[in-house]
Amino acid sequence: MKILIVEDYLKINRLLASFARTEDHIVTQTYDVETALDSLSNQSFDVIITDLMLPKMQGEDLIKAVREISDVYIIVISAKVDTDDRIDVLKLGADDYLTKPFSVKEVMIKLKNIERRIKQVQLTFLSYNQKELVVMPFKREVLLNDELLVLTKYEYEVLMYLINNTNQILSRDQIIDHISNDSEAFDRVIDVYIKNLRKKLKDNSKSPKYIKTHYGVGYQFIGDLDD
Length: 227
Fold this sequence. Notes:
By secondary structure, this protein is α/β, with parallel strands linked by helices. The chain has eight helices and eleven strands.
């Protein structure tokens, strides 16, 4: 797996990296949030291991930024032991929380478990209309006629919400509530996402293969799932 370590204490950073590389993981070491964000803008990772108390920007800032664009697995390792701190970080989107001092062996076991689940999920994909459309949820990739579609974060989330509720008619408000808590910011913009998705899917609104409009009601995914 590709792992990003964000830890300003050099000894801990090196210890985690050394053990992870022994397990054949590809490791990128960073020591602050700014450098971590630069790394994330240039490459993808399977797991992020981060401290919370970091120079300038905090680990919480990193988690917030990451969750804007990615569902990558985030493990927090921190000296903060207060229960409220742990709960707040998990609410931000962290997947796991370990307190210092911690067991490196425990971290390696967690990584092995994550890797096993990744391999299982990577085998899972959905295909429609005789493999014209292929969706790989874990990779967040969508292919049309074997060509990778470039979808924005919200276009992808709208498409997946429709797919996960195949043959159900979803109102604009339902879609808004699913992709954002800020209903005003997304009011009526769902129509734009649908229009963009149709263009990228080469889907004709008058005789759709994938997204059907029910005027005054909402939208429905109608792709034929392959056996």
